[in-house]
C-alpha cells in the first residue's frame, strides 16, 4: 500500500463522478472530504460508500464527520503503524468494516437532534477505527445507538462511576459485589438518597452499562436506602470510545 496515500483522495474522486442531485448527504460528504486529507484506511472506502447515504439533516452528518476527522488527526502515528503492519487482506476487511460504520454513523447522526450526541457518534467512529485490534462493526453500531439515547447528564453520572470503579474493572472481568458497594460512596453523590440517581442509573442499566447491586443482607424492610450500582464492561468500553484526545486512561 503506498505510504503517501491520503484516505479521502479516492473517496473524493469517486464522489465527483456521481450525480450530485441524488443525495444532499453525498454532496456534503464529498465536499467535506475534499478539505480533509488524512491517511489510510479511509482512502479505500470511496467506491463502497457512494450512493448509500440518503439524509435530510446534512448539518448533523457534517458535524459527525468533522468530529470524527478531528479526532482521527490526533492518531496519525497509530494509523501509520496499522497501515504498515496489516496485510492486504486485513486492510480490505478493515475498509469494509469502516464502510459499514461510516454509513451507519451517518444515518444515526441524521436522526439525532442533540449536537453533543452527534459528536459522540463521531468520536466512537474515530476511536474504533484507530484501534489496533480488528474493528467489530456490530459493537460499534451498538455503541453509537447508545450514544444517540444518552444525555450529557446521563454520561456525567456514568463517567463518575468509571472514575471510581474503572481501574478495578480493567484488571478483572467483573467487580465483586462487596467492592462495588464500598466504592459507591466515593462518588460525588456520597451516601445520600436521591431519586435522580436511581432515574439515571436505571436508564444506564437498561442499556447494559451498569447493574444494580442487591441490597445488604442486614437491611430491614423499613429502612430507606439508595440503590447502588456496579460498572459493567460495556459501560467502561462506552466511556473509552467517547473519549477525546486519544487518551484511554480511566479512573
Structural class, from helix and strand content? Answer: mainly alpha
Q: What global shape is seen?
A: globular
Taking the sheet with the most strands, its summary is: 2 strands, antiparallel
Name the poorly predicted regions.
Answer: 1-15, 18-22, 50-56
Please tally the β strands and state the result. 2
SSE arrangement, N to C: HHHHHHHHHHHEEH
Q: Kindly report the spatial arrangement of strands forming the biggest sheet.
A: 1-2
Helix content: 55-70%
Helix run count: 12
Report how far apart the termini are: 39 Å
- In percent terms, what proportion of residues is strand? under 5%
C-alpha Rg (nearest Å): 21 Å
> On the 0-100 scale, what is the average pLDDT?
79
What does this structure look like?
This protein is mostly helical and 251 residues long. The chain is 59% helix and 2% strand. It is built from 12 helices and 2 strands. The protein has helices at 9-16, 24-34, 46-49, 58-73, 76-85, 88-110, 115-129, 137-149, 152-170, 177-184, 195-206, 233-241, and strands spanning 210-212, 229-231. It has a two-stranded antiparallel sheet with strand order 1-2. Helix 4 packs across helix 7, helix 6 runs parallel beside helix 8 and helix 7 packs antiparallel against helix 8 (137-149). The two termini are 39 Å apart.
Amino acid at each position: 500500500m503506498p505510504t503517501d496515500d491520503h484516505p479521502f483522495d479516492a473517496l473524493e474522486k469517486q464522489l465527483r463522478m456521481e450525480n450530485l442531485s441524488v443525495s444532499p448527504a453525498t454532496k456534503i460528504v464529498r465536499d467535506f472530504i475534499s478539505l480533509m486529507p488524512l491517511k489510510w484506511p479511509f482512502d479505500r472506502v470511496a467506491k463502497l460508500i457512494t450512493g448509500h447515504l440518503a439524509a435530510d439533516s446534512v448539518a448533523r452528518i457534517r458535524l459527525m464527520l468533522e468530529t470524527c476527522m478531528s479526532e482521527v488527526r490526533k492518531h496519525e502515528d497509530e494509523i501509520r503503524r496499522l497501515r504498515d503492519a496489516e496485510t492486504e487482506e486485513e486492510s480490505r476487511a478493515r475498509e469494509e468494516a469502516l464502510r459499514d460504520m461510516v454509513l451507519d454513523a451517518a444515518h444515526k447522526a441524521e436522526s439525532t437532534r442533540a449536537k453533543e450526541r452527534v459528536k459522540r457518534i463521531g468520536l466512537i467512529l474515530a476511536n474504533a477505527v484507530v484501534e489496533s485490534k480488528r474493528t467489530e462493526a456490530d459493537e460499534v453500531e451498538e455503541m453509537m445507538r447508545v450514544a444517540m439515547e444518552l444525555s450529557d447528564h446521563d454520561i456525567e453520572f456514568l463517567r463518575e462511576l468509571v472514575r471510581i470503579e474503572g481501574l478495578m474493572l480493567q484488571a478483572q472481568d467483573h467487580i465483586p459485589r462487596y467492592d462495588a458497594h464500598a466504592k459507591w460512596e466515593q462518588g460525588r453523590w456520597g451516601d445520600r438518597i436521591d431519586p435522580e440517581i436511581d432515574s439515571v442509573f436505571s436508564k444506564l442499566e437498561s442499556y447494559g452499562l451498569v447493574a444494580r447491586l442487591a441490597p445488604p443482607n442486614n437491611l430491614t424492610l423499613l429502612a430507606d436506602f439508595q440503590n447502588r450500582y456496579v460498572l459493567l464492561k460495556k459501560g467502561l468500553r462506552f466511556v473509552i470510545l467517547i473519549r477525546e484526545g486519544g487518551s484511554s486512561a480511566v479512573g
